[in-house]
Structure to design on (554 residues):
C-alpha cells in the first residue's frame, strides 16, 4: 500500500470510526426490496445505523480485462440509487473493493508475459475511467485486495481461533470455511430456491475440502504464482474473504448496504455474510443487500465474457451516448434484467432526445426565440396542477424501491400534456409577454432538469469539442444566430416599405438559398433548425436522423 493510500485509508477511518459501534437503527423515507425478508421478498423501509449516514460496500471489478456493457449497466443502476439516497439527505460513505489478484488475472498475465500487478493496474485504471465517462459517481475509497493482505490474514486467524470450528487448515497450507458448522449458512440459496443456474463455489483443491459447499479462505501457493506469507502457509486470499475483510476494516461488524450483480448472490454474498456473522458471533451482518439485474441481448442471451458476446464500454461509447445506456437502466427496475436490442436502444435514444429537445425548446421560449401561447380552453392553472402532481408522483415512485420506470413514465406524460396544450406563435406581431406565463415555463424546465440531474444524465449536454474545448451547444447556438441574421437580411426584415422590401428580397435571393442549404446540411447531421416567422430561429437534435445514423454504426 502506498503512503498516499495509507493516509487516505487512515483519514477515512479516523473521520468515521464512530460508525463501527452502532447502538440503534434509523428509518428513512426510502423503501427497498428485501429478498431475505419473511415471508419471502418484501419492500421494507431502508434503515441506517447512524442518522442520515449510510455505509455502503460495493463489490468492484476483477481487473483482468476491459469492462463491458453488462458491467456498466450494473454500476449505472447503483449510481442512480446512490443519487436518490443523497437526494433524500443521506450522506453515503461508499467503499469499493477491487480484486487485483485472482486466477484469471494470473493466467492472463502469464499469457501476456507481464507482471500480474501491471496487468491488473492497467485494467483498474481503465475501469474507473469508464465510470467517469458514464458519469458514475466514484466511491470515496477504492480498495485493492493486494493492499489489504494484513487485514485478510487477521480475519482468517480470527475464524481459525473461533470455538465454533468454522475454519480449518489443510495439508497443503490452504484454509477453508466449513459451511456445515455455520448453522445459518444458505440464507440466499433458501431465498432463491429456483435459481438452479447458480453454481456452488468451486476450487482446484476440491479433494481437500470436507464438504462440497466449503470455500477457500486462503489458497495455497502453486508453482509460478505470486504469494504472501501466512502462519498456515504461503498463498493468497480466496475470493470471498477479500470483501469481508475490507468492508469490516472500514465499517466494523455492521454494514448498512452491500451491492453487486444478482450473479454474486450465491455463493459470493452468501459466503461473505457467513464469514462475517461467524467472526462477530451475530445473525446478521448486512442490513440491506442490493442486487442488480443482468443485461441480455436479443434472444434472451446474457452478455458475458464466458460466452464471448461482450461489447466493451469503450467500444460502445465510440458510437453511442452514455445517456442512452443510462436511459435503458432508468426504463427498467434495478433488480430486473435489461433487454438490449436495436428496438430498446431506439426507444431509449428517443426518450433522451425528446427530453433534451423539450428543455431546448423551453430555453428558446424563455430567451424569446420561440413564441408560444396556450391552446383555446387551456389555462395556466391546468398546467401548474399537472406539474405539481407529476412532481409528487415522481418523488413517491423513487421512494418506493427506486422505481425509475414509473418516474420516467410520469415525466414523459407531463411533457406530452404540456406539448398538447401549447401552440407556436408564427405571427411576428405577437409579443412573448402576453402569450405565455414565464414562471410556468421555468417551472417545467426546472422539473425536467432536476430529474435529468438526479438520474445522472448529461443534462447540460456538455460534450466538448476536440479542438477548442468548448460546449457544442454554444458553437451551434452562435452559428444559428449568425444564420438568423443573414436570413433576416435576405428577407429585408427591417424594411417597412413593402415594395422596397420585395425588391431587396429579390436582390438577396441567393442568400436565402444559402440559408436553406445550410439548414438541409445540418439536418443531415442530426441538427434541425426551426424558423419561427421571419426573425426568430431555434434548433434541436433531430431524433429520426440520429436513429438512422446509429443503425449504420458498427
Amino acid at each position: 500500500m502506498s503512503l498516499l493510500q495509507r493516509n487516505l485509508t487512515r483519514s477515512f477511518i479516523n473521520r468515521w470510526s464512530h460508525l463501527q459501534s452502532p447502538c440503534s437503527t434509523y428509518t428513512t423515507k426510502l423503501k427497498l426490496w428485501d429478498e431475505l425478508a419473511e415471508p419471502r421478498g418484501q419492500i421494507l423501509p431502508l434503515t441506517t445505523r447512524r442518522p442520515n449516514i449510510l455505509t455502503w460496500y460495493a463489490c468492484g471489478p476483477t481487473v483482468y480485462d476491459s469492462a463491458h456493457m453488462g458491467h456498466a449497466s450494473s454500476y449505472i443502476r447503483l449510481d442512480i440509487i446512490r443519487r436518490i439516497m443523497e437526494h433524500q439527505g443521506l450522506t453515503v460513505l461508499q467503499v469499493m473493493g477491487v480484486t487485483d489478484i485472482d486466477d484469471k488475472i494470473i493466467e492472463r498475465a502469464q499469457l501476456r508475459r507481464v507482471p500480474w500487478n501491471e496487468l491488473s493496474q492497467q485494467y483498474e485504471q481503465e475501469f474507473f475511467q469508464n465510470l467517469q465517462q458514464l458519469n458514475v459517481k466514484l466511491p470515496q475509497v477504492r480498495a485493492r485486495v493486494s493492499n489489504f493482505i494484513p487485514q485478510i490474514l487477521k480475519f482468517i486467524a480470527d475464524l481459525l481461533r473461533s470455538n465454533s470450528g468454522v475454519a480449518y487448515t489443510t495439508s497443503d497450507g490452504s484454509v477453508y470455511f466449513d459451511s456445515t458448522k455455520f448453522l445459518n449458512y444458505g440464507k440466499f440459496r433458501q431465498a432463491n430456491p429456483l435459481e438452479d443456474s447458480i453454481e456452488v463455489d468451486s476450487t482446484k483443491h476440491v479433494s481437500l475440502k470436507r464438504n462440497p459447499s466449503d470455500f477457500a479462505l486462503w489458497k495455497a501457493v502453486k508453482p509460478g504464482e505470486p504469494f504472501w506469507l501466512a502462519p498456515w502457509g504461503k498463498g493468497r486470499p480466496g475470493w470471498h474473504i477479500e470483501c469481508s475483510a475490507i468492508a469490516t476494516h472500514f465499517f466494523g461488524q455492521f454494514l448498512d448496504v452491500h451491492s453487486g450483480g444478482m450473479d454474486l448472490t450465491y455463493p459470493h454474498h452468501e459466503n461473505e455474510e457467513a464469514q462475517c456473522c461467524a467472526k462477530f458471533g451475530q445473525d446478521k451482518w448486512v442490513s440491506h443487500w442490493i442486487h442488480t439485474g443482468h443485461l441480455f441481448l436479443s434472444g434472451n442471451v446474457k452478455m458475458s465474457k464466458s460466452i464471448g458476446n461482450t461489447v466493451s464500454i469503450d467500444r460502445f461509447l465510440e458510437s453511442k451516448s452514455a445517456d442512452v445506456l443510462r436511459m435503458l437502466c432508468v426504463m427498467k427496475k434495478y433488480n430486473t434484467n435489461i433487454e438490449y436490442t436495436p428496438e430498446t436502444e431506439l426507444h431509449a435514444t428517443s426518450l433522451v432526445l425528446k427530453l433534451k429537445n423539450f428543455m431546448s425548446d423551453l430555453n428558446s421560449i424563455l430567451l424569446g426565440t420561440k413564441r408560444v401561447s396556450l391552446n383555446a380552453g387551456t389555462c395556466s392553472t391546468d398546467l401548474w396542477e399537472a406539474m405539481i402532481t407529476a412532481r409528487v408522483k415522481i418523488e413517491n415512485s423513487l421512494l418506493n424501491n427506486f422505481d425509475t420506470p414509473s418516474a420516467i413514465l410520469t415525466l414523459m406524460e407531463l411533457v406530452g400534456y404540456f406539448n398538447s396544450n401549447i401552440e407556436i406563435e408564427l405571427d411576428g406581431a405577437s409579443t412573448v409577454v402576453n402569450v405565455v406565463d414565464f414562471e410556468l415555463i421555468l417551472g417545467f424546465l426546472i422539473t425536467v432538469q432536476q430529474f435529468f440531474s438526479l438520474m445522472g444524465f448529461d443534462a447540460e449536454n456538455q460534450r466538448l469539442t476536440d479542438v477548442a474545448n468548448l460546449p457544442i451547444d454554444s458553437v451551434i447556438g452562435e452559428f444559428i444566430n449568425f444564420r438568423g441574421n443573414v436570413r433576416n437580411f435576405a428577407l429585408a426584415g427591417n424594411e417597412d416599405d413593402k415594395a422596397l422590401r420585395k425588391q431587396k428580397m429579390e436582390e438577396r435571393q441567393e442568400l436565402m438559398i444559402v440559408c436553406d442549404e445550410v439548414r438541409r446540411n445540418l439536418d443531415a447531421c442530426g441538427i434541425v433548425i426551426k424558423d419561427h416567422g421571419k426573425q426568430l430561429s431555434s434548433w434541436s437534435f433531430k431524433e429520426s436522423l440520429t436513429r438512422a445514423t446509429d443503425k449504420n454504426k458498427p
